[in-house]
Amino acid sequence: MIIVKGPAELASMRAAGRILGELLVRLRAAVAPGVTTAALDALARDTIAALGGAPAFLGYRGFPATICASVNDEVVHGIPGARALRAGDIVGLDVGACVDGYYADAAVTVPVGPVSDEAQRLIAVTEAALAAGMAQATPGRRVSDISHAVQTTVEAAGFSVVREFVGHGIGASLHEAPQIPNYGAPGTGPVLKAGMALAIEPMVNAGRPEVEVLADGWTAVTRDHRLSAHFEHTVAVTERGPEIFTKP
Ligand code: MG
Question: What is the pLDDT of residue 220?
């Protein structure tokens, strides 16, 4: 069942989203050759605390950090550590925050110095796919209208969408119904209503869609080891259209 939120719940989610919007600006500015993913994680932990939130991922199912940092062929759920970013890398930064018991979730993929044309195009297409998906988050549309818009945008550019991980409802839990795949035929699944809150998150591979999880139990990588990008926003469905809570 998809939980419809009231104004007070949405206000808490809006506050959590505002923290993430600000944090993503600071993280993007901190990305540079030589910076470790652990340093980005520390920045995120400190920033969330300073802005009055709580980290959502730290300890979630045992996850050991505040952000997921996924470099190059890493798709999602990379664990921050001593790895130093290098010019030409791309890094996906995914982070959640909680305010008054309500969650927001967001991700960006950032180039490290100058990157290849393919990396630039992958980042642009993934961000465009997120925008296309969010545009469907209006009352009366169905969940798979979001999925279809994402998939169409990605495949028109010659890239592929990951099947194993999906977007999700969000609210008093980080992950709620419905699941929001990044592929599928339009016009199926639950009808969207004002007050629903969704984390829409295309994960896009430059090559084939298949992924595998490394021995650390978290890090998902592309099986063909080509690049992958990830963007995510938490949005509310409203009568006036989608409200993006996590906008930078
Ligand atoms: Mg998410």
Answer: 98
